[in-house]
Design brief:
This protein has about 325 residues and is an alpha+beta fold. It folds into two domains: about 200 residues, Cation efflux protein transmembrane domain (Alpha-lytic protease prodomain-like), CATH 1.20.1510.10; about 80 residues, Cation efflux protein, cytoplasmic domain (Alpha-Beta Plaits, 2-Layer Sandwich), CATH 3.30.70. About 65% of the residues lie in helices and about 10% in strands. It has a five-stranded mixed beta sheet. Helix 6 packs antiparallel against helix 7. The two termini are about 20 Å apart.
């Protein structure tokens, strides 16, 4: 029985899409994240003070959400640095999943905050409080400017990182929340309708909950070693089984190291005409990389009469 791990291709894949990617722009990216953290913390203090002075729950709610954004940016920054550490004897896959863990923490916190805001808004509906509309409008206007600046600081990095994308989308939601708070302050000034404040808070909470619930699944699936959404393990096994020299594929497992790297391991039962195992594996690797974008494959070949007694996992053919 021949056994090959494909270290050459696997090692190349790790350097190219793992440590090599973030490392190239890490300095500038970390500087932008640090700047975003600073302005968000300053905004949080201003919003809490303004909410207490004006009596606006929506403003305090927006401050709480903004603080979660600052915290998520800190977590994102730390995880980004940790993910650049090389693999070692204890963390043989490297540290890239630190960013997935950070995204999971951020989305979980976002959901908890959304639930808290919804509960506070419902209580305020039954006990309306007076609101200073001008204070709300002015501070929310400042918040909108800072939220927009944070969005711009993180936009470029959000395309390639679930971790940074979580922080980016938090701040985008914050910007939308600031617009809602401004609208609420104007309504209070014009019509003295204070119920608009908890109603807008409920709207912000609903958006936060929808956003957190829709994003958290991707992080959980990666950490649970689920197959990528765009690949079907059965289809992939069937395609592999159609390669010349392959009798069947079994014990196939398909998962993601992180957002950018997908891995396959499988047992390959060779056909009865005794093909060259190395040539078969080369053809399989070419198929995986060309048609499925999988550059890391661990393939164990089995002679035609030496198959597994109880083959598990996904099968092909």
């Amino acid at each position: 029985m021949a056994h090959q791990h494909g270290h050459g291709q696997g090692h190349h894949g790790h350097n190219h899409s793992g440590h090599g990617g973030p490392g190239r722009h890490a300095g500038g990216g970390q500087g932008r994240l640090a700047g975003a953290v600073a302005i968000n913390l300053a905004l949080t203090v201003a919003q809490v003070a303004g909410g207490l002075l004006s009596g606006s729950l929506a403003l305090i709610a927006d401050a709480l959400h903004n603080f979660s954004d600052a915290a998520s940016l800190v977590i994102a920054l730390l995880a980004r640095r940790l993910a650049r550490r090389p693999a070692d004897s204890r963390m043989t896959f490297g540290w890239a999943r630190a960013e997935i863990v950070a995204a999971l923490i951020n989305f979980t916190t976002l959901i908890l905050i959304g639930l808290y805001l919804a509960a506070e808004a419902v209580m305020r509906l039954f006990d309306p409080q007076p609101i200073d509309g001008w204070t709300v409008v002015v501070i929310a206007g400042v918040a909108l400017v800072i939220d927009a600046a944070t969005v711009l600081l993180t936009m470029a990095m959000a395309r390639d990182s679930m971790n940074i994308r979580a922080a980016f989308l938090h701040n985008l939601a914050d910007a939308m929340g600031s617009v809602a708070v401004i609208v609420g302050g104007v309504v209070v000034l014009l019509y003295d309708w204070t119920l608009i404040d908890p109603l807008l808070t409920l709207a912000i909470a609903a958006y936060v909950l929808w956003h957190g619930a829709s994003e958290i699944g991707a992080a959980v699936r990666i950490l649970m070693n689920a197959a990528p959404d765009h690949l079907d393990a059965v289809d992939l096994a069937t395609a592999m089984a159609g390669v010349e020299g392959v009798h069947d594929i079994h014990h196939l497992h398909l998962w993601r190291f992180d957002e950018h790297r997908t891995s396959v391991e499988a047992h390959v039962r060779l056909s009865a005409d005794r093909p060259d195992p190395a040539a078969v594996k080369q053809r399989l690797r070419a198929l995986l990389e060309r048609d499925y974008g999988v550059a890391h494959a661990t393939l164990e070949t089995e002679a035609h009469g030496d198959a597994c007694v109880a083959p598990g996992g996904v099968r092909g053919r």
